[in-house]
From TrEMBL:
Keywords: DNA-binding, Transcription, Transcription regulation
Entry-linked PANTHER family: HELIX-TURN-HELIX TRANSCRIPTIONAL REGULATOR, ICLR FAMILY, HTH-TYPE TRANSCRIPTIONAL REPRESSOR ALLR
One Pfam family per UniProt: IclR_C
SUPFAM superfamilies for the chain: GAF domain-like (SSF55781), Winged helix' DNA-binding domain (SSF46785)
Coiled coil: none
All residue ranges annotated as the IclR-ED domain in the record: 68-213
Superkingdom of the organism of origin: Bacteria
Domain HTH iclR-type: start-end pairs: 6-67
Full protein name: Helix-turn-helix domain-containing protein
Keyword Cell membrane: no
InterPro entries assigned to the protein according to its UniProt record, in alphabetical order: ArsR-like_HTH, GAF-like_dom_sf, HTH_MetabolicPath_Reg, Tscrpt_reg_IclR_C, Tscrpt_reg_IclR_N, WH-like_DNA-bd_sf, WH_DNA-bd_sf
Amino acid sequence: MTAETSQTLDRGLRVLKLLADTDHGLTVTELSTKLGVNRTVVYRLLATLEQHALVRRDLGGRARVGLGVLRLGRQVHPLVREAALPALRSLAEDIGATAHLTLVDGSEALAVAVVEPTWTDYHVAYRAGFRHPLDRGAAGKAILAARQSPSADPGYTLTHGELEAGASGAAAPLVGVTGVEGSVGVVMLADAVPERVGARVVEAAREVAEALR
């Protein structure tokens, strides 16, 4: 801690991070141990966070992340989209195909940012807000590949005709971005994705990940 930071706020944020990393919640005693503070401090932190619906406690007294976090999360998409746009524009212009940033939303893949190339005669119309199952299309499959091998380089995923007849896709997952699960990809009207596109998509995904760190 430094003179410019708040110890109480720091502890409150640490509580949220600890609760976000567990599926079964934590007791006051467990939080006290993990934070290295006494139980009274934890009680006060939880009471304050509960007032803002950021934490809830179940009948057994275990603290869990509250629904208020979801309301804050809805504001994340515009911030992520803004950070990703430069890399997406570069990707779309370089490849001559529609580039997109896709994030996980429940069991679906949600396109939150889309950039179309300016110089091509035709390209795939792909709109922000488009949803599809995670196990269909390059964007969702790239995310699933990263889940299966979190410690390895997942590379890129190629698909053809899974979301739109005659369209091929390539996507690479975002790696090393805490709290954001998604992918960067392109979709084009082609029977197959040109060889250089995969590496370029991986590069764009790395650029977006760096912008979000």
